[in-house]
UniProtKB/TrEMBL annotation:
Listed Pfam families: ABC_tran
Record protein name field: D-xylose ABC transporter ATP-binding protein
Keyword Repeat among record annotations: yes
Keyword Signal: no
Family according to the record: Belongs to the ABC transporter superfamily.
Domain called ABC transporter: residue spans: 6-245, 262-507
SUPFAM superfamilies: P-loop containing nucleoside triphosphate hydrolases
Compartments it resides in: Cell inner membrane; Cell membrane
Organism listed in the record: Pleomorphomonas diazotrophica
Length: 512
């Protein structure tokens, strides 16, 4: 009997002659967690889609051994029946079905008459959620009632229901709160202790360091190395991932902060579904030319709602005034904001940032399509030239410019969304979680771009849940909590403890 539950040997997969992965090896023992690391576009998700038969046998070359026998799966159902379950970075929920229906989708328990036994299904779903320490979830409610973090844990429940022997988690904590992340990591440790194997894909290397027994790194579709985590640290993993040592993840550059260019006064927003609840409560602030203003706060603080109001895309009731270059402006819709010089990179790129089946390049130029239109016709050559320029500028990895953007990695999709919002040459750029779900190398490039924009005089409002990121690149930090502005700090000697204290409503003694 093999020592390994899973062995992948010399796996190669290409798309239209372009190799996405080339000769990759991966081995996983029972009860082991393997951290799979690499930059966006390195081939991690492609490798896992080969393993889970999203790309069926025959569409790739190499060999997969499962429990010592060759696996030639033709679809996901076959790999799940074998005990291989993947939880994708993008959630696979059916929003209007209940939590229980999502967990049991395709394997619903039935009574003697052949009908779905909802009582039994709900009872079993409750047991699964209790195991995940999520007893507060009502399994009979539609899953859209719950946050992305809780939906991620519902995905874990689905995997448990399928009796997974190998659980593949692709960026599982990108939408989780700190407490939800803690719950998930503790669960993985419990799974390991019970003999379940895991492949853990994450750009959060502190998480990889905590739970992985072994780390495999791939770069540009090739296998760079596999080592025990005990022989590594996060800096060594980064060096393997990007091919160079990165001593400073936040490339601060000197830039001049000028006069006030943007001002929000007494901004309030009400919950879309509950007119009695304020999600943004009387927030006012100024933003200066060339300034990088970070916005920190815990989940539910109202940061994204504030950004949506400023960009004209908040669907609920709202009030307050916005001033640009000293003049009051009316922003009723995103097109108004873009026309005035206010652009925004949204938090959820899948829902609000891209048109999935449209080409990468057309996603980039759609914000300035009028530039390439004459007499009712699009000037294709000029548009394609701009597309090529932006792909090179943002280092977007794509086999060709008009490939559907949905086929790109999350990080490369994000680069394209940023490029789209830079083309209108904004005076104010709002970035809502700009580095969520992207690798350390891509983060570094986005940070460099933010400083480049600041040096050009663009005012940047950056919302981030990653405290080191906020403190690493901001000139000043706004702290929000429960919809209110609880702190406004110059970023000189500012600590995570001080920001967190403000976020949870402890007395603020230093303000600017």
């Amino acid at each position: 009997m093999s020592d390994y539950l899973l062995e992948m040997h010399d796996i190669t997969k290409d798309f239209n002659g372009v190799k996405a992965i080339d000769g990759i090896h991966l081995q996983v023992r029972r009860g082991e967690c393997v951290g799979l690391c690499g930059e966006n576009g390195a081939g991690k998700s492609t490798l896992m889609k080969v393993l889970s038969a999203v790309y069926p046998y025959g569409t790739w070359s190499g060999q997969i051994l499962w429990e010592g026998k060759e696996l030639k799966a033709r679809n996901i159902r076959e790999t799940e029946e074998a005990g291989i379950v993947i939880i994708h970075q993008e959630l696979m929920m059916v929003p209007h079905l209940t939590v229980a229906e999502n967990i049991f989708l395709g394997s619903e328990p039935r009574n003697k008459a052949g009908f779905i036994d909802y009582d039994l299904m709900n009872a079993q779903a409750e047991k699964l959620m209790a195991r995940l320490k999520m007893s507060d979830i009502n399994v009979a409610l539609p899953v859209y009632n719950y946050s992305g973090g809780k939906q991620q844990l519902v995905e874990i429940a689905k995997a448990l229901n399928k009796n997974a022997k190998l659980l593949i988690l692709d960026e599982p904590t990108s939408a989780l709160t700190t407490s939800e992340t803690r719950t998930l990591l503790d669960l993985i440790k419990e799974f390991k202790a019970n003999g379940m194997a895991c492949v853990y894909i994450s750009h959060k290397l502190d998480e990889v360091a905590e739970i992985a027994d072994t780390v495999t790194v791939i770069r540009d579709g090739t296998h760079i190395g596999t080592q025990p985590m005990a022989e590594l640290d996060t800096n060594k993993i980064i060096t393997m991932m990007v091919g160079r040592e990165m001593k400073n993840l936040f490339p601060r550059e000197a830039h001049t902060i000028g006069e006030v260019v943007f001002e929000a006064k007494n901004i309030s927003c009400w919950d879309v579904t509950n007119r009695e609840r304020k999600v943004v409560d009387n927030v006012s602030f100024e933003l200066r030319k060339g300034e990088i203003l970070g916005v920190a706060g815990l989940v539910g603080a109202g940061r994204t709602e504030l950004a949506c109001k400023l960009f004209g895309c908040w669907n609920g009731d709202h009030e307050g005034k916005i001033f640009l270059e000293g003049k009051e402006i009316s922003v009723r819709a995103p097109r108004d904001a873009v026309r005035l010089g206010i652009c925004m990179v949204p938090e959820d790129r899948k829902r609000h940032g891209i048109v999935p089946l449209m080409g990468v390049g057309y996603n980039i130029t759609m914000s300035v399509l009028k530039r390439y239109t004459s007499g009712g016709f699009i000037q294709s050559e000029a548009e394609l030239a701009e597309i090529q320029n932006q792909i090179i500028r943002m280092k977007v990895k794509t086999a060709e410019p008009l490939l559907p953007i949905a086929s790109l990695s999350g990080g490369n999709q994000q680069k394209a969304v940023v490029a789209k919002m830079l083309l209108p040459e904004p005076k104010v750029l709002i970035l809502d979680e700009p580095t969520r779900g992207i690798d350390v190398g891509a983060k570094y490039e986005i940070y460099k771009l933010i400083f480049e924009l600041a040096k050009q005089g663009v005012a940047v409002l950056m919302i981030s849940s990653e405290m080191p990121e906020v403190l690493g690149i901001s000139d000043r930090v706004l702290v929000m909590g429960e919809g209110k502005l609880r702190g406004n700090f110059v970023n000189e000697g500012l600590t995570q403890e001080k920001v967190l204290a403000a976020a949870i409503g402890q007395p603020i003694t230093e303000a600017a």
